[in-house]
Structures are given as structure tokens and as C-alpha cells.
Amino acid sequence: MRTQFIVTLFVSIAFVFGCSRQNDLHLAPVSGVILYEGQPLPNAIVCFLPEGIDNRAASVQTDANGRFILTTINKADGIASGKYQVTVSKFEEMEIAENNKIKKSNRLPKDNKNLKPLIPIRYNLPATSGLFVDVPAKGVKNLKLELTSK
Asked: What pTM was computed for the model?
């Protein structure tokens, strides 16, 4: 009985603090555009990874014009202020059909597909992307991240 009480108490405390942590997040709007070789990069996955452990990561897919609005919990709610490393990924799925012809698609990758990167692979990893953004409490509008093939 005592063990059940302690477990129930622990779960209740975790629930209260977990819910209050989410409600205590002060999110700032962040929107912008991803350019590759000066052109908008549509259907790319953009991830903002916090440098500290206090903030949550956020990610989104760019639209047809390479534009994005970051999401942490609810659509387009922004991210907490702080320093972030940014990654950008874009792949082309290449499915080899039974007749050895290659079908191409820009859908999100699946495990059973061969993927071809459409931008340099260095942008996929925080350690090599070279992309950093400092988000102030008021947020960032019209952020421009420019990627190159070099």
C-alpha cells in the first residue's frame, strides 16, 4: 500500500511539473526563408536545436517559396529565446522499380528508399552546418538563411 502511494505521489508530481513546464514556455515567433544558391529552397526540413538543455528544439518544412514559421508545440507558435544551431535537410527519394527504372519524389524519406541529398550533406548536422541563430525574446521575422554548394 505504501509503495502504491509513493508511486502515485511521484506520478502526480511529475505530471504537475511537466504540465506547468509546458505552460511556462515563453515562445517567440520566428519566421524566415531558406535560400540555396540564392533561390528559395522548397520542401526542406529546418531544425532549430538549442545550445542549452533548457529550451526545446523546433522544426518545420519549408513551403513552395522556401518560407517557414517555426513550431514547438502548436503550429506556428515559435520557439523560446536563446541560441540555436540550425540544420537544413532536403532529399530526393529514389525508388528503384522492378523494371530498374528510377522513380523520383520529394516526399519525406522512408526507411525502404534510397535517398539522394539535394543540398550539401554538411547542412544536415549541427556540428557541420555552420548555421547559428540567436533568438531574442521578441522573436525574429524575415530571417534569411543562405546555403551554398561550396
From this structure: 0.72
Q: What are 3's three cell numbers?
A: 509503495
- Give CA–CA dist 95/34, Å, rounded: 27
Q: Where are the domains of the chain?
A: 27-144
Distance CA 119, CA 37 (A): 10
User: How many beta carbons lie within 10 A of that of residue 131, not counting itself?
Assistant: 20
CA distances from 24 to 10, 19, 21 (A): 21, 9, 5
Please name which of 138, 150, 147 lies closest in space to residue 44, comparing C-alpha atoms: 147
Residues listed for the chain: 150
Q: Which fold has domain 27-144?
A: Immunoglobulin-like (2.60.40)
Cell triple for residue 2? 505504501
pLDDT in tens, 93-110: 655 555 555 555 555 445
**How far is it, in rounded angstroms, from Cα 106 to Cα 95?**
11
**Which DSSP string do the residues of 86-113 spell out, in sequence order?**
EEEE-EEEEEE-TTSPEEEE-SPP-TTS
